Amino acid sequence: MIESLKTATAFNTNIPSTPAKDSGRREPAKEPPREEIVPLRQPEPPDEAETLSAAIQRLISERDGHRSRSGAQEQELAKLRAVNEELRRQHEHTALIRDHYMRLATEVLNTLKHIDITIHEVVQKTLGAHGDPEGGDATLISLARRLAPNAPPTATRRTERDLSRLDRDLRHRTGA
Q1: Could you give the CA distance from residue 27 to residue 22 in angstroms, rounded to a whole number?
Q2: What's the CA gap between 102 and 23, in Å, rounded?
Q3: DSSP per position, the chain
Q4: How far apart are CA 59 and CA 63, in angstroms?
Q5: Are 32 and 14 in contact (CB under 8 A)?
Q6: How confident is the model over 83-133, as pLDDT tens digits?
């Protein structure tokens, strides 16, 4: 096919042009030099032309298919980028919430440690005031039983009464 196009182009450039009519005189046409004459190629058979035409149509349809797939993929890529950005924002928000709860848990833990130390000091002061270490152990054991998480509700009420009694006794002894 390409050869036939080259041949046709070469043929068209080698055709001598006829001069415009002047006063009836014609100049004889000059023949091109022998090396420039290209033999004419026979026209392509109809089957080959149809095959080439079908191949061109196939290439055009493939190109159009690739364009449409490319457009669809670009749209999908834009959607995925938007989803990715939304997920990134959600992750940042979740990280902020996690950090907040970690600080809160640390504060609660520190408060519980402070409460534990305070209770331990109060018990030590109470034991020191009574001067009875064996009774102090019994007091600690009873306090631990009352503060146990599986203790029945009545034990919890009793624990509250005992703690308030201990608090009153401590205030009375220290004069506060």
Answers
A1: 10
A2: 108
A3: -HHHHHHHHHHHHHSPPPPPPBTTB-PPPPPPPGGG--PPPPPPPHHHHHHHHHHHHHHHHHHHHHHHHHHHHHHHHHHHHHHHHHHHHHHHHHHHHHHHHHHHHHHHHHHHHHHHHHHHHHHHHHHHHHT-HHHHHHHHHHHHHHH-TT--HHHHHHHHHHHHHHHHHHHHHHT-
A4: 6
A5: yes
A6: 999 999 999 999 999 999 999 999 999 999 999 999 888 888 877 766 555
What the block records as the tokens of 139 is 């007091």
pLDDT of residue 20 exceeding 50, the answer is no
* Separation CA 113–CA 118 (nearest Å): 9
- pLDDT confidence of residue 174: 65
> What six digits make up the tokens of 175?
């004069």
Residue predicted with more confidence, 16 or 90: 90
Structure confidence at residue 142 (pLDDT)? 72
